[in-house]
UniProtKB/TrEMBL annotation:
SMART domains: GGDEF, HTH_ARAC
Alphabetical list of CDD domains matching this protein: GGDEF
Entry's Gene Ontology molecular function annotations: DNA-binding transcription factor activity; sequence-specific DNA binding
InterPro entries noted in UniProt: GGDEF_dom (IPR000160), Homeodomain-like_sf (IPR009057), HTH_AraC (IPR018060), HTH_AraC-typ_CS (IPR018062), MarA-like (IPR050959), Nucleotide_cyclase (IPR029787), Rev_trsase/Diguanyl_cyclase (IPR043128), Tscrpt_reg_AraC-type_HTH (IPR020449)
Protein name: Diguanylate cyclase
Domain HTH araC/xylS-type: 11-109
Gene3D superfamilies: 3.30.70.270, Homeodomain-like (1.10.10.60)
Lineage: Bacteria, Thermotogati, Thermotogota, Thermotogae, Petrotogales
NCBIfam families: GGDEF
Residue span, GGDEF domain: 148-280
Organism: Geotoga petraea
Keywords: DNA-binding, Transcription, Transcription regulation
Amino acid sequence: MFSKQLFEIIKEVLDFVEENIYDYIDLNEIVDKTYMSKSSFYVIFKEIFDFTIKDYIRKRRLSLSANELIYKKMSILDLAMKYGYNSSEAYSRAFKKMFGKTPTEYREIGLYTDLFPKIRIEFSKGGKITVKNDMNIDIIIEELKSTKEGYYLDIDIDEFGSINEKYGFKAGDKILETVPKRIKDVLKNENIKTEPVRINGDEFGLIIKNIEKSEVEKISKKIVNSMNESVDFEGEKIKFTISIGIDEFNIGKKEETVLKNGTQAMIEAKKKGKNTYFIK
């Protein structure tokens, strides 16, 4: 068990990395901030997060660059330079290793999945220390605030930890890319203009506006069924399912209540045997 003081030091390191993510980061400067030896810091960081500080910096940069590939018109060479690569070739190799696609292929698909979000360390008044991935829950909250009525879907990958354990984290990343793409395909076929947002490690949020309950159920069923086809990964066919929790909302309902209800409904779907949906 690591002390609160140690986690405060690690938090300062993570904050420093985020503040300097577009600049050259000297690992010796990071180590100096910790008042530890380089070897001790490296061992402790890896023990806490299960990856190295170098991996964290590299994956954060690649994840941020993926966002810009989709939402900005920068050239691949300019992105490579921005995120510390000597050439577009070096950047493309690193990108493909993480995302399973070249930057050009990823841009053509046009679906951003934040595979490696910022890590936050939080301290509660009771002394509890929580390590969280900084996902896109704020996007969902803002959309709820600006939407008069509709349905919120909490979509969770069933037994995702077992997938990582059995096939490895790269296989898990492949599933994380596949799920929102299939959701998006269903929505496109139904002519619904909205997109899933990753809100947790293996969880996505979705807001559908101005729709009847029967239509939400029909779409939810189609989303569940869209996951029936296995994913091919390095010669393995990986089967997976999802569970969906649904909550109706209107302009008078607090955003926190909608999110909580969605989560509770998703848990109920799992209790029903997974691979299904449940309306709160």
